[in-house]
Amino acid sequence: MNRSALHKISYGLYVVTSGQDGKFNGQIANSMFQVTSNPATVAISINKENYTHELIKLSRKFVVSILSEEAPMTFIGLFGFKSGRDVNKLQNVKTKTAVTQVPVVLDHTVSYLEVEVDSEMDCGTHTIFVGRIVECDVVSDAVPMTYAYYQKVKGGKSPKTAPTYSKEEPAAAVKPQTAASYVCSVCGYVYEPAKGDPDNGIAAGTPFEDVPDSWTCPVCGADKSKFEIEK
Ligand code: FE
């Protein structure tokens, strides 16, 4: 079986929030699709280990914020590589509440869907939640981020709880560089000198050795010592 075939499936990149009674959380998801048009129904696949999974089970509702290409890696890392059991991810993020009372993430969001869960399917490591859209709106005209864009342009990886996680990410996601690339041993983010980390003040063309020691992984927050030269 050539698992590279799976890397050709196209996805978007979303923040899924859920919860109730003052307990809320959000996480990155890439496995969401519209199931029916009438009524408007969507499905998402969520890892059972994730705190958001627990909150969807409890509240039977969730919100999907569809992210724009401009969403920085720090923002994606906050929702993708940190657990809501340890940090309040929504603390410094612009949100609003509407029909479901679940916080709708508005930062870097092009549109959002508020969903009430109708059914679920146990899929081993993950649960697929299917629900009706009870409210939705467009937030901006920015271009929605695709998963391919996230991987190729942003250098993003899948956290180990993602349905698309693979120990060996596609080699095409990493372009050859003359100066060495460094990989974060915590989350798999690759620092590419040619791209730098402009979101965090590191200009394109900066070799890893010249990145200040105060710099941290834009995805998971690990410090520079956690990076290893990419082989
Ligand atoms: Fe990292």
Would you kindly provide a written description of the structure presented here, covering whatever features stand out?
- Helix content is 10%, strand content 32%.
- A seven-stranded antiparallel sheet has the order 2-1-5-8-9-4-3.
- Strand 8 and strand 9 (126-138) form a beta hairpin.
- It is mostly beta strands and 231 residues long.
- Residues 171-177 have low confidence and may be disordered.
- The protein starts with 13 loop residues before the first strand and ends with a strand.
- The radius of gyration is 18 Å and the shape is globular.
- 37% of the residues are buried.
- The chain contains three helices and twelve strands.
- It has helices spanning 51-59, 73-80, 147-152; strands at 14-20, 23-29, 32-36, 41-47, 61-67, 95-96, 104-105, 109-123, 126-138, 182-184, 190-191, 227-229.
- The longest helix has 9 residues, at 51-59.
- Bound molecules: fe (iii) ion.
Sum this structure up briefly.
With 231 residues, the chain is mainly β. Helix content is 10%, strand content 32%.
Write the layout of secondary structure elements.
Elements: E1 14-20, E2 23-29, E3 32-36, E4 41-47, H1 51-59, E5 61-67, H2 73-80, E6 95-96, E7 104-105, E8 109-123, E9 126-138, H3 147-152, E10 182-184, E11 190-191, E12 227-229
Antiparallel strand pairs: 1-2, 1-5, 3-4, 4-9, 5-8, 6-7, 8-9, 10-11, 10-12
Bound molecules: fe (iii) ion (FE).
